[in-house]
Amino acid sequence: MAKLRLNITMSLDGYVAGPDQSEEDPIGVGGQELHEWVFPLKEFRDMHGGEGGETNASSAVVNERWANIGATIMGRNMFGPIRGEWPDESWRGWWGEDPPYHHPVFVLTHHPREPLQMQGGTIFEFVTDGIESALARAKAAAQGEDVWLAGGASVINQYLAAGLVDQIDLSIAPVILGAGERLFDGLERGSVKLTQTRAVDAPGVTHIKYQVG
Amino acid sequence: MAKLRLNITMSLDGYVAGPDQSEEDPIGVGGQELHEWVFPLKEFRDMHGGEGGETNASSAVVNERWANIGATIMGRNMFGPIRGEWPDESWRGWWGEDPPYHHPVFVLTHHPREPLQMQGGTIFEFVTDGIESALARAKAAAQGEDVWLAGGASVINQYLAAGLVDQIDLSIAPVILGAGERLFDGLERGSVKLTQTRAVDAPGVTHIKYQVG
């Protein structure tokens, strides 16, 4: 059965994005520092049309994360910096005309918008009727593969609180952000049952995987 | 030179103790769950006068943490549940007459109290003139060995903010506490520079070590 998988990088003080997201700071102020472990990887450069890069203990982890994913769910703030009503159709995501998803991406928002067909197989669909609806649509679209819960923190925490996440693979970066979007916020004690299934010591990051439930 | 070393277990949502500490819940409600990985260890049972126990990937980690420690610093709430003035001399810590420290323990408090000589080499000394004074006294008492920064979160966060911690060995437990005492709280972005030096995948816990500064 298709799983809802959360793969994300968190600072040591619990943030998955810095404060004050903007077009200049898509992951908030300081948020880029979370991902310094991934930028040098050959796997990352391949995916973003770059060249070279290195292979290290993180390589197998990112390959596993990106494999068998047939659809993605994200919050509206992960899709872009615009708040409130869509002023027009001009914002098409942070990733250019060929985003690195290559499958349907379901964007949770309160404001309806027509689907956005991009190059390379990515289509952004805007879901206004809640997280369970988005999950049902994503699972159907994934055609037997898993669904990636991409972020941000608010959407992730809603899915966690609702008991809908099956697996977490968390990268813990050696960074203190001090402010921003906090993962695992607002959850009640014991509401998420976790079993650690592996941890990987990689250059500048630790990857810990949990089975949920 | 003597180092100030922080060795502590944190929940996935960032807490090192649950809420509502009391004589019945020394680590707050749910706080015991943080330490489930350590209770089965032979090393833990040996230290607390028990028998049996197992050896696993955590064993080398706890042996390393407990080695070369000549003094401990803790906050007043880690020493006991009493707040405000000491009503009398009757509270002598959570650990009975032979606490597992076997060296000088400096307790930070606003309320003066005479030193408390316990069995087995532990002596509790109460420090009222601040964290730097406690560190200087602990380093002198440690006689060339390192100083363990034991907790709780409030004291640890003060030492981190002051740039006085040299090394962190953090155990991350697969637990959501939802409330309690938060580690790394109130720190500014970039105020603590961390370099990950190793991570250990152990049963039910991940241990990550950082060099600070």
Structure summarized in a few sentences:
Chain A is α/β, with parallel strands linked by helices and 213 residues long. Chain A has helices spanning 42-47, 57-66, 76-79, 131-142, 153-161; strands at residues 4-11, 15-17, 69-75, 104-108, 116-117, 123-127, 146-151, 167-173, 181-182, 194-202, 205-212. In chain A, strand 3, helix 3 and strand 4 form a beta-alpha-beta unit.
What's the arrangement of secondary structure elements?
The structure is a homodimer of 213-residue chains.
Chain A: E1 4-11, E2 15-17, H1 42-47, H2 57-66, E3 69-75, H3 76-79, E4 104-108, E5 116-117, E6 123-127, H4 131-142, E7 146-151, H5 153-161, E8 167-173, E9 181-182, E10 194-202, E11 205-212
Parallel strand pairs in A: 1-7, 1-8, 3-4, 3-7, 4-6
Antiparallel strand pairs in A: 2-9, 5-6, 8-11, 10-11
Question: Which outline of chain A best applies?
Answer: globular
In total, the number of domains of chain A comes to 1
Portion of residues in helices of chain A?
Answer: 10-25%
CATH class group of chain A: Alpha Beta
The total strand number of chain A stands at 11
SSE sequence of chain A, one letter per element? EEHHEHEEEHEHEEEE
| CATH topology-level fold name of chain A | Dihydrofolate Reductase, subunit A
Given as residue ranges, the uncertain stretches of chain A (5+ residues, pLDDT < 50) are: none
